[in-house]
Structures are given as structure tokens and as C-alpha cells.
């Protein structure tokens, strides 16, 4: 009996998110007039090169805070790999920000195993605080071509929700 309860609690955690807030929040794309500029940052990518968010202005960006130990994050990653392939030539990019305490030692092997085809960096508390604090993983920010946060997804949301957001933001004037 206790084993079934334990399995049920684990499945709930897997499907809702990792962190202090178990709620899944799927925010619709905000009207342009209410969007705020995404916090700037410069971090090193997996090759040691600077990853500057401002360099992505003109593109739609899915900025994903995640960790290798986060079950829902592992569900999303294949979607993000697919999105990078499908929409890259249309002005779209995925940026992963790992919140793993062990940094590249765990992230690089995971990237290789998962076949991640988008840029990755390691975040920290300071980076998370620029985005109001990232209390739950995964947390993703949809950033429009002007560098403004158009939507925020906390926890695991559906692949279809991401596709709707990406396509809506790509259709917006360039």
C-alpha cells in the first residue's frame, strides 16, 4: 500500500515539475503592450564561448531553465530538439540554462546522450534572480523578436502549447 502511494506521489512530481511550486502554469502569449524586456545576460556555452542573450534580438527564443535530475525537463528536451530543427531557419532558437549544481560535469554528458542540438549554458542564482527567481523546473520564457518576454511556462506544459506560442511569435512582424 505504501509503495503505491509512493509511486503515485513520484508520478505527480514527474508530471508537474521539479521545485518548490508543483503547479503547472501555461501562460498565453501576452499582448505586445504588456511585455517586458528579457533580462540581459552573458554566460559561457558548452564550448566556452560567450552566450549573449542580446545577440538573439530579431529571433524568437525559447529560454529554458532546467536540470539533468528533473523528470519533466527530460520530457521537454526532445521537443526542444525538434523545435530547433523545425523552426531554426524561420528565426527561432532554443537556449538551455542548466541549474545543475555540478555544472558541466553532469550537463555535457547529458547533452551528448540526449543529442541536444541547441546552445546550452550553466545558470546560477544570480541568473535566475534576473528572471524573478526560478522556483520550479522546468521554467521556460518565450521571448519575442524584440527581446521581450511574451509568455512564461512553469512546470511541464504540453508540446502543443509550445508550438502555438512559437508559431504565433514567428508570425508576428519581423
Overview of the structural elements:
With 174 residues, the protein is of the alpha+beta class. It has a single domain, classed as Glutaredoxin. It is built from five helices and eleven strands. Strands 2, 3, 6, 7, 8, 10 and 11 form a seven-stranded mixed β-sheet that branches. The longest helix is centred in the middle third of the chain and has 17 residues, at 71-87. The chain is globular. The termini are far apart.
Helix share bin? 25-40%
Distance between the termini: 57 Å
The portion of residues forming beta strands comes to 25-35%
- Which CATH architecture would you pick? 3-Layer(aba) Sandwich
**Radius of gyration, in angstroms, nearest whole number:** 16 Å
What would CATH call the homologous superfamily? Glutaredoxin
Please state the structural category.
Answer: alpha+beta
Quick check: average pLDDT?
A: 88
Name the helix and strand elements from N-terminus to C-terminus, one letter apiece. Answer: HEEEEEEHEHEHEEEH
**Strands, total number:** 11
Question: Which residue ranges are poorly predicted, with pLDDT under 50 across at least 5 consecutive positions?
Answer: 1-16
Shape: globular
Number of self-contained structural domains: 1
Count helical runs. 5
Amino acid at each position: 500500500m505504501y509503495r503505491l502511494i509512493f509511486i503515485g506521489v513520484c508520478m505527480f512530481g514527474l508530471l508537474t515539475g521539479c521545485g518548490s511550486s508543483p503547479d503547472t502554469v501555461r501562460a498565453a502569449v501576452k499582448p505586445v503592450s504588456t511585455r517586458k524586456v528579457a533580462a540581459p545576460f552573458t554566460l559561457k556555452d558548452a564550448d566556452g564561448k560567450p552566450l549573449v542573450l542580446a545577440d538573439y534580438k530579431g529571433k524568437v527564443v525559447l529560454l529554458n531553465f532546467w536540470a539533468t535530475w528533473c523528470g519533466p525537463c527530460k520530457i521537454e528536451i526532445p521537443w526542444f530538439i525538434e523545435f530547433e530543427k523545425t523552426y531554426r531557419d524561420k528565426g527561432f532558437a532554443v537556449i538551455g540554462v542548466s541549474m545543475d549544481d555540478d555544472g558541466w560535469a553532469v550537463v555535457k554528458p547529458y547533452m551528448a546522450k540526449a543529442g541536444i542540438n541547441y546552445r546550452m549554458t550553466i545558470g546560477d542564482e544570480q541568473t535566475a534572480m534576473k528572471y524573478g527567481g526560478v522556483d520550479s523546473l522546468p521554467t521556460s520564457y518565450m521571448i519575442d523578436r524584440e527581446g521581450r518576454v511574451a509568455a512564461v511556462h512553469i512546470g511541464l506544459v504540453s508540446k502543443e502549447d509550445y508550438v502555438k506560442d512559437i508559431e504565433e511569435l514567428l508570425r508576428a512582424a519581423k
